[in-house]
């Protein structure tokens, strides 16, 4: 798979998970360890794009805040992610309350640990 195909594969999984951590867990449980690791790599890479200027100009000034917001944006799906890339001023200042329940980051690592007794090693 080339990078474009991998990214499309990733976004399809995110769309199918529908911002539901348990649904994503069920989807990822069917995957090989290599595919779980690939999913985690793409998630982290996409989130990292939002963890620098100009995005951080609009996000709560804490490392956890920046990570939570970037993970939440990726979890919302491709359309929202691309909207934020084009309009950094629209990125949320922080993620609080129930919104944090829709952050899909970390599920791949949990599934890898549960299924293969090993973590992805990608953070």
Could you describe the 3D structure shown?
This is DUF4240 domain-containing protein. InterPro entries: DUF4240. Residues 7-93 form the DUF4240 domain. There is one protein chain. The protein is mostly helical. It is built from six helices and no strands. It has helices at residues 3-17, 21-29, 33-48, 63-75, 78-86, 107-116. Helix 1 packs across helix 2, helix 2 (21-29) packs across helix 6 (107-116) and helix 3 (33-48) runs antiparallel to helix 6. The longest helix is centred in the first third of the chain and has 16 residues, at 33-48. It is globular and about 40 Å long.
List the main descriptive attributes of the protein structure presented here.
123 residues, mainly alpha, globular
What is the structural class? Answer: mainly alpha
Biggest beta-sheet profile: none
DSSP helix count?
6
Distance between the termini: 22 Å
Shape: globular
Strand proportion, as a percent range, falls in: under 5%
Which percent bin holds the helix content? 55-70%
Q: What is the total tally of β strands?
A: 0
């Amino acid at each position: 798979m080339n990078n474009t195909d991998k990214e499309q594969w990733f976004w399809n999984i995110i769309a199918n998970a529908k911002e539901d951590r348990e649904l994503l867990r069920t989807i990822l449980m069917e995957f090989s360890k290599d595919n779980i690791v690939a999913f985690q790599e793409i998630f982290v890479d996409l989130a990292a794009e939002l963890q620098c200027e100009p995005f951080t100009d609009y996000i709560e000034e804490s490392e956890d805040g920046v990570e939570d917001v970037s993970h939440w944006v990726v979890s919302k799906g491709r359309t929202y992610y691309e909207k934020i890339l084009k309009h950094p001023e629209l990125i949320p200042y922080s993620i609080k309350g129930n919104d944090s329940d829709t952050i899909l980051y970390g599920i791949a690592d949990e599934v890898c640990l549960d299924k293969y007794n090993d973590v992805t090693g990608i953070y």
